[in-house]
Design brief:
Layout (H helix, E strand, L loop, with lengths): L1 H15 L5 H20 L4 H16 L3 H12 L6 H21 L7 H24 L4 H14 L3 H22 L13 H12 L6 H12 L5 H17 L3 H12 L5 H15 L8 H11 L2 H17 L2 H26 L15 H10 L3 H13 L6 H4 L33 H12 L6 H11 L4 H24 L9 H18 L20 H7 L2 H13 L3 H13 L5 H13 L3 H12 L5 H14 L3 H14 L4 H13 L3 H14 L4 H13 L3 H12 L7 H13 L3 H13 L5 H10 L1 H6 L6 H15 L1
Helix pairs in contact: 1-2, 3-4, 3-6, 4-5, 4-6, 5-6, 8-10, 9-11, 10-12, 11-12, 11-13, 12-13, 12-14, 13-15, 15-23, 16-17, 16-18, 20-22, 25-26, 26-27, 27-28, 28-29, 29-30, 30-31, 31-32, 32-33, 33-34, 34-35, 35-36
């Protein structure tokens, strides 16, 4: 009923919108009041709003414009802003006109551009509707916007002028006070004001001309400090992720083109995140695509963009790294701690004379915990490669008041920050050493550095110097490792800036208290082969191979398959691509697809033995035992003594009911490996099926006496053997023990028993006797 009432309002509004004068104004105001009251009754959930937005967007991306308009028409009924209906009607009329001309045979050379414009307009209208309906359901966004509107007002032009005035005052002060001395230090903008500016930019939706002018002036200005520009760039990035606007992407490109260190790298990271999120929309904006084409021709830009893409994937491994560290390293280190205190006499500080006398004890301690050194070395290597190994350490240190300001999750680490500044005025030397070490600690992100500094204040004074000394030693060791890996001077490199900034972003999306109101970009699925911006501007085979290798080595086989198949379609395919595609399919259990690609890999001059083994294994998994046997036989011609191959070949014979040949191979394997149950069990069964009952009795005695837990099938098969040897008492004993294991239900037990009936009949057990034996066993099971 409510929906019907709203439809009536929509219909009436569409009619009066064509009227003019006082009648239109009066009726429109009246309907808007009714409409707002109805809206309060019908409110969609945030999930439903976003679902409807996705339906409209997907229809546009697939060029199903009629469906998109219909979906939008259904969705817009839940809005209380009547202007959306007018815009929707306009877009619908325009599209109908285009269709009519097209159907009548008129070929407009601008038709493609008109469709791109329609796509952009419809998506933009959907953005506005999404924002207007979703934000009231997002308390943090809503409260921050309300506070800013109350303080700055609604005039966006006036707000831009106010921000410009804040920065302009610094220029005037310099000209008046320092007579234009560019070397004079600028006074920092107060943190509260900086946070407000950050949020104003973040919450901006459409970029107006005065916004563009202000951002460009900030970009060019020598009077705005690098870390302030970095915050501006981060705010633009969040604004872009919150609300699509190609002008925001263009601004980020311009900040990157200015090549100011720290700022440039952050701008490129923000640009890439925006391109990943809005990839389907890029081609609708010619000015943006021209800008992307331009930076794609810059070798340095391409290099940084490749690093960003790769590091973005590396950041997605953080949860896995954290889990491995907590499960593999920390438990072993805890085991080591009690012995460390004893061996290093940490409880008796008076006897300490020379620290070097105690160093040999460390090696003994690590050696006493097997594998600990290798594990620590593994995580150190991850750290050098950009892996985020400190997330678990610092995630609990984000509860300081410092992090209550949203902008402080993004501010670069610098010693001039008034909120951290001079920690201990009475210890100036200690302050300098601490900041020197942290500024050069390329392996710790900015957010974690602030956590370290803030937590450092709580450390007792007598321990501070020791901690800084240890920190300096660790930094020196990391520098030595960097030199060995040809990664010199990382604290000043683009790589370190990019890695640290992406880790800052990761912490914001994962730990920020109101993170639920932000889309976590690190959970977004990325298919590089399907990304328009990557394929069009940045795809290069060598880098795509690197991405595929990353996915492959990390066990992300779906993504690896996508990229290897993409590479195989481009240019000349390589055997390695088919091999790794096949292996990925195999790991996913898609054995038929694996076989298809292993056969393609066979055509190349590659490791034939490895491919033969894999093909045999995949055919074995799909129960094509004849083909599996053929491939294993071919592999054995190259490697005749391979026990794994022999066992797999024997398994094929066994499944093909070729028990004699299977037994020959298992006997050979038992010669190499006596008593091995992996070979003894199938050998005993083959002895039973081929009439070698005495040998079978001996084999089952060895199996059941081996000390391993007797399996249900071992006991059942031993019962079969004794039944066929007419030792029914012994057979009953084994059958009862088999039933008592409770590994199988009675039904499952009898199904397995039935499978062996042909062999029992072969040994002279009468067909009429079989049901009686089964019922007798069931009665025995009831008694037990």
């Amino acid at each position: 009923m409510l929906t019907l009432a709203k439809d009536v309002c929509h219909f009436t509004y569409n009619r009066i919108s064509r009227c003019s004068g006082i009648a239109q104004y009066t009726l429109a105001r009246y309907l808007k009041d009714i409409f707002s009251k109805l809206h309060k009754v019908i409110v969609l959930s945030r999930n439903d709003i976003e679902l409807r937005y996705r339906k409209v967007s997907e229809a546009v991306f697939e060029k199903r414009f009629k469906s998109a308009l219909d979906e939008f028409s259904q969705w817009v009924r839940f809005s209380d802003k009547m202007e959306f209906f007018y815009h929707l009607e306009t877009l619908t009329d325009n599209y109908k006109t285009l269709l009519r001309y097209s159907f009548e045979g008129y070929r407009d050379p601008q038709q493609e551009n008109m469709l791109k414009s329609l796509s952009a307009s419809l998506l933009s209208l959907a953005d506005e509707l999404l924002q207007s309906m979703r934000e009231p359901l997002m308390p943090y966004h809503h409260s921050e916007r309300s506070a800013l509107l109350k303080y700055f007002g609604e005039d966006t032009s006036a707000v831009a002028s106010r921000i410009e005035e804040i920065f302009l005052n610094r220029e005037v002060d310099q000209l008046v006070g320092d007579k234009g001395d560019k070397s004079a230090e600028f006074s920092p903008i107060p943190p509260v004001m900086l946070d407000q500016i950050f949020k104003l930019i973040w919450l901006a939706e459409r970029t107006r001309d005065h916004h563009m002018s202000l951002a460009r002036r900030i970009n060019r200005s020598e009077h705005i400090l690098w870390y302030e520009k970095s915050l501006i760039v981060s705010a633009i990035t969040l604004s872009l992720l919150n609300y699509f606007d190609p002008q925001k992407m263009i601004l980020l490109i311009e900040f990157a083109e200015a090549r100011e260190k720290q700022v440039c790298q952050r701008a490129l990271v923000g640009l890439i995140l925006g391109l990943i999120k809005y990839d389907h929309r890029i081609s609708n904006h010619p000015e943006l695509t021209e800008k992307l084409k331009s930076i794609s021709l810059d070798p340095e830009m391409r290099k940084d963009i490749e690093l960003i893409l790769f590091q973005f994937l590396m950041a997605r491994e953080t949860e896995k790294i954290t889990r491995e560290f907590e499960e593999e390293v920390l438990p072993d280190m805890k085991k080591m701690m009690p012995r460390m205190e004893d061996k290093l006499q940490l409880g008796d500080q008076e006897e300490e004379t020379d620290m070097e006398d105690k160093n040999p004890g460390w090696k003994g301690l690590v050696d006493e915990v097997p594998g600990l050194f290798e594990k620590i070395e593994k995580f150190s290597k991850m750290q050098m490669e950009g892996g985020d190994v400190f997330m678990s350490t610092f995630q609990m240190l984000k509860r300081f008041d410092f992090f209550n300001r949203m902008c402080n999750w993004f501010i670069p680490f610098h010693r001039q920050n008034p909120e951290t500044g001079m920690l201990f005025p009475e210890q100036e030397g200690l302050n300098r050493r601490l900041y020197d070490s942290l500024e050069h600690a390329f392996y710790i992100c900015n957010s974690d550095k602030y956590s370290f500094v803030l937590n450092f204040q709580a450390i007792p004074a007598q321990q501070r110097n020791l901690i800084v000394t240890n920190f300096e030693a660790e930094l020196a060791q990391m520098k030595d490792m960097a030199t060995e890996e040809q990664m010199l001077d990382q604290s000043l490199s683009d790589n370190a800036i990019i890695i640290q900034y992406i880790q800052d972003l990761y912490r914001f999306f994962k730990i920020f208290p109101n993170r639920g109101e932000f889309e976590d970009m690190f959970r977004r699925k990325i298919s590089f082969d399907g990304l328009y911006f990557y394929r069009t501007f940045f795809q290069k085979e060598s880098f795509t191979v690197k991405l595929a290798e990353f996915y492959f080595e990390k066990g992300h086989y779906y993504e690896a398959i996508e990229l290897y198949e993409f590479l195989s379609r481009q240019g000349s395919p390589k055997g390695e691509f088919y091999e790794k595609t096949a292996y990925s399919y195999q790991k996913l259990g898609r054995y038929k697809k694996a076989i298809e690609h292993y056969k393609k890999a066979e055509l190349f001059d590659s490791d034939r033995l490895w491919i033969l083994k894999k093909l045999g294994w995949c055919f074995l998994k799909v129960k094509d035992f004849q083909n599996a046997m053929d491939y294993f036989s071919d592999a054995l011609k190259i490697q005749p003594d391979d026990q794994t191959l022999l066992a797999q070949l024997a398994q094929c014979h066994l499944n093909l009911r070729d028990y004699e040949n299977a037994l020959q191979i298992y006997s050979r394997l038992l010669f190499y490996s006596p008593g091995n149950l992996r070979y003894l069990r199938p050998a005993a069964y083959c002895q039973f099926t081929t009439g070698k009952l005495t040998a079978a009795v001996e084999s089952y005695q060895e199996i059941l006496g081996s000390g391993s837990t007797a399996g249900v099938y071992d006991l059942m098969n031993a019962g079969h053997v004794h039944l066929c040897k007419s030792d029914r008492k012994k057979a009953l004993e084994f059958y009862k023990r088999s039933l008592d294991t409770a590994e199988l239900s009675e039904t499952e037990f009898m199904t397995a028993f039935d499978e062996d009936i042909p062999h029992l009949l072969h040994y002279g057990i009468l067909p009429d006797e079989i049901p009686l034996i089964k019922d007798f066993l069931l009665f025995q099971a009831d008694k037990s």
